[in-house]
Design brief:
single chain; 5 helices; alpha/beta; 18% strand
């Protein structure tokens, strides 16, 4: 199955960003990479991605990006990636729909992205149907 959906990857480690972009590209997704929060905010001011994969480095800056994702209605379909042990609780508290613990298994990462994609698609279809 081919996807043409756009995923914003926010990752400050270029090797990790390249790997995520490669994995998602092999699944048919288009990706754009932001190397930091400011770059991500600039991208979000120009385009609205279908999904966002965010390297979760908890800080005031990442909290402001989460606020922007919430404002744009993207938080429920966002995917946080982190080495933090409390990632699931953090996502739940912040209203973020999905998480992947680093280092991640490729199949697990793809599965979480596809699950988030399904939620995003359902959300868009409901919006278009006026529900």
């Amino acid at each position: 199955m081919r996807y043409s959906k756009l995923i914003l990857i926010v990752e400050n480690h270029s090797d990790s960003a390249e790997l995520m972009s490669y994995i998602l590209g092999k699944q048919g997704y288009r990706t754009v990479v932001a190397e930091n929060i400011e770059c991500a905010k600039n991208i979000l001011s120009i385009i609205t991605p279908d999904l966002v994969v965010l390297d979760c480095f908890v800080s005031e800056a990442s909290n402001s990006l989460l606020s922007e994702l919430k404002r744009q209605g993207l938080a429920r379909c966002a995917i946080l990636c982190s080495t933090q042990d409390n990632l699931h609780a953090y996502c739940k508290r912040e209203g973020v729909g999905f998480s992947v613990k680093k280092p991640f298994d490729v199949d697990e990462f793809v599965s979480v992205v596809q699950e988030a994609d399904a939620v995003a698609t359902e959300k868009r279809n409901s919006a278009h149907a006026g529900v």
